[in-house]
Amino acid sequence: MTAPESAMCTLMDVFGQYAKEEGKKDTLSKAEAKKLLTEQFPGLLKKAKKPEVVDKLISSLDINGDAEIDFAEFLVIVGSITCACHGRCTKK
């Protein structure tokens, strides 16, 4: 597999690991999303000084308002984080 293909498989695997913990196996509950972000993006959440900022981020992931986060919604935040990191990394 190429590096991008491997990255795609990793994203699918990580999403699936957390989504299967409760409820539907193809969506994240807010609790599953919080756990995923806390464990998989610890640097991002450490910079959030207020817990309500993290809760607001999680709520913003639910783009269609169905109280669940599907894979496409998950990819939006991963893409946003990646873009933000890319901007910082290329400036250094």
UniProtKB/TrEMBL annotation:
SMART domains xref list: EFh, S_100
Keywords: Calcium, Metal-binding, Repeat
Superkingdom: Eukaryota
KW S-adenosyl-L-methionine (keyword) present: no
GO biological process terms, semicolon-separated: endothelial cell migration
Domain EF-hand: 49-84
CDD domains noted in UniProt: S-100
Molecular function as annotated in GO: calcium ion binding; calcium-dependent protein binding; transition metal ion binding
The keyword Phosphoprotein is assigned to this record: no
GO terms for cellular component: cytoplasm; extracellular exosome
InterPro entries found in the cross-reference section: EF-hand-dom_pair, EF_hand_dom, S-100_dom, S100/CaBP7/8-like_CS, S100_Ca-bd_sub
Entry protein name: Protein S100-P-like
Organism, scientific name: Gouania willdenowi
